[in-house]
Amino acid sequence: MSKRIVINCWGSHGDLLPYVGLALALKANGHAPVVATPAIYREEVERAGVEYAHVGPDLDPNDKTLYDRVMDQARGGEVIVRELLMPKLEETYSELTAVATEADLIVGHPLTVSVPLVAERANRPWVSTVLAPMLFFSATDLTVLPQAPMLRHAAKLGSWAARSVVRFAHRMTKDWFEPVHRLRTKLGLLPAGHPMFEGMFSPRLTLALFSRLLGEPQPDWPPQVRTTGFVFYNGPDAALSPELEEFLAAGPAPVVFTLGTSAVGAAGRFYQESAAAAARLGVRAVLLIGAFEQNRPAEPSRDVLVVERAPHQLLFPRASAIVIHGGIGTTGQALRSGRPVLVAPHGHDQFDNAQRITKLGVARTLHPKRYGAPLVARELARLLSDDYRARAETVAAIVRAEGGAAAAADALEHFIA
Question: Rounded mean pLDDT of the chain?
Answer without folding.
Answer: 96
